[in-house]
Amino acid sequence: MSDGPVFPLPEYLRRQSALLSQLDIHSILLIPTNDMKIRSNDVHFPFRASSDILYLTGWDEPKALFVGHHDGEEWKTTLFVRDNNELAERWEGRRVGVSGAQERWPVDNARDWESRLDALEGWIQTKSTVYIQQGHDQDLDTLVNRLVTTKTRERTVSGKGPISIVDPSPLLAELRIRKSESEISIMREAAIIASNAHTHAMRNTKGESNESEIQSLIESTFMKNHSVPSYGSIVAGGDNATILHYHANRDVVEDGSLILIDAGCEVQGYASDITRTWPVGGKFSQVQRDLYEIVLTAQIEAIEMCRPGNTWSDPHKAAVRSLSKGLVEIGVLDCSIEEAIGKNYDGRVREFFMHGTSHSIGLDVHDVGVIKPNGDDDGRLLEPGMVLTVEPGLYFPEWVETLNIDPKFAGIGIRIEDDVLITDGDPEVLTASCPKTVVDIENTVGKDV
Question: Is 141 a catalytic residue?
Answer without folding.
Answer: no
